[in-house]
């Protein structure tokens, strides 16, 4: 019998949902703007709305459950949203229970970095690997890890908060309140801020010379057109990514590192600089680990959310130890 | 029937061995100075010698096997010493096979940080926990991690090389060749070097005023006697330890962090500074994780080596998921 799951990728700006089959194929999808300021009840209503939308007409005997990827921190042992910065009112609420009550199907809830790692593991660039690190570099930096053939969770399911390791003691301010976090240097936000700062008052660069805002995409485009400042910014961003990735190689010893998120759109430009830093910063045993771009693009989390469901109801025996 | 294992803790200066029972109790022990310059054959002979010494007269039906904790990096999937800096000639050799051939008993070989983490998990400060990080702070900084009720290995068994995460981008030189590693700042070696540098030419401190060398122990002793420079050095060391530990909290999300190695002798003095840094550097969800001293002291690795054997032949079901 064909098994189907609803995958939902809840973000600070969009709620995306899809009906997904056990091969990770998206059959239908829908998107809403997140009611980020409206509180947990309103957001849960949105999850219900998108779930109904993508599963309309699907027989309940085919529908295995709902997987939800959510911004963290979520205590996934208890299904509780601890304190989600991007969603108003998500402090200490029993989010998993709320979703289950509203949708009326079995629910799996996961921190977004871990859900995306699962998506890439089951259906993307990490298929068949025993050990992988997934990082998403966009507004912030998040991640998820598979080691020894298992998705890592740690206490309360909070492992893999890779963006908040310090790479510069007492360095730049991070939105988390700490100083010197990897996220404060290498996120898409930090990359764009650095670009705006350096481009300001510079006549030699094309950055900032049009109506378009200076963001990561604009820097990558300018670099491709030979803009020297943009090229230097890309080199610096790559180096900063490399510092953090080298750390992750020593800490987790993955077979592969997978990069997703908006900044991964410039992966080909960043790749040489990332590799150069890893060559100098990583011990010989770790230097040759492949660093690749996420294969599922924007859908790692969405497909990963569905994979939570399939993994729980019928784990793929072949990749378990 | 009483089951016994031989635990061997191979270090750069000492080979320590013990006969250990399934409760982690040391029944007999012996120590040799490591023939660190004499090559793999000579070191393997030493392992044979200490194994025979502690198991003399023990019936083979009681003796389950030999566990060896070794300086890394060891590829424990293949039993190969990749390139051990402290032992001459240990480059790409089939170390596990050599030990097995020489001793004639089943052998388990593990990277030292991971073996010590296992020792603390089974018989020390981490007993019964599902998630723990063990770090050893001495000449360098090493570690081992238990997550979701399992000892982490990662690709080739090299996970947990926590000493070589960068905490200061392009910072101080590390023996590994990189710059800015945690080990380059917070190891016992770095701590002692900083103390010697700061004490030099200072008349107000008792450090360096006797024949005794300035090392970590001397700094702790002087701090206890009210020496201001020593107290400041302790505060700085604690802060540097805290930076790295805060990183590990985000990366692994342990229930507890266990500190071993020589620098842990000053744990009570270091503890307030470690906690202060964690309060400022860790996100709220991670701040209250207990940081404790290793319960097995110098024997975490020795007892952990024996635990490798007992875990393999009869894993304790209760702590597995």
Topology:
2 copies of one chain form a homodimer.
Chain A lengths: L3 E7 L3 E8 L4 E8 L6 H16 L7 E8 L3 E2 L4 E4 L7 E3 L1 H9 L3 E5 H12 L8 E6 L3 E7 L2 E2 L30 H5 L1 H12 L16 H9 L3 H25 L3 E5 L6 H15 L9 E3 L6 H14 L8
Parallel strand pairs in A: 1-4, 4-8, 9-12, 12-13
Antiparallel strand pairs in A: 1-2, 2-3, 5-6, 6-7, 9-10, 10-11
Helix pairs in contact in A: 1-2, 3-9, 5-7, 6-7, 7-8
Largest interface: A-B, 52 and 52 residues
- What's the number of domains of chain A? 2
- Quick check: average pLDDT of chain A? 96
Query: What is the architecture of the largest domain in chain A at the second tier of CATH?
Result: 2-Layer Sandwich
- Number of helices in the DSSP assignment of chain A: 9
- CA-to-CA gap between the ends of chain A? 27 Å
Total beta-strand segments of chain A: 13
Query: Which CATH class of the largest domain in chain A is shown?
Result: Alpha Beta
Task: State the assembly state of the protein chains.
Answer: homodimer
Give the H and E element order of chain A: EEEHEEEEHEHEEEHHHHEHEH
In order across it, which strands form the biggest sheet of chain A?
Answer: 3-2-1-4-8
Helical percentage of chain A: 25-40%
Shape of chain A: globular
What composes the largest sheet of chain A?
5 strands, mixed
In percent terms, what proportion of residues of chain A is strand?
A: 15-25%
> Runs of chain A with pLDDT <50, length 5+?
none
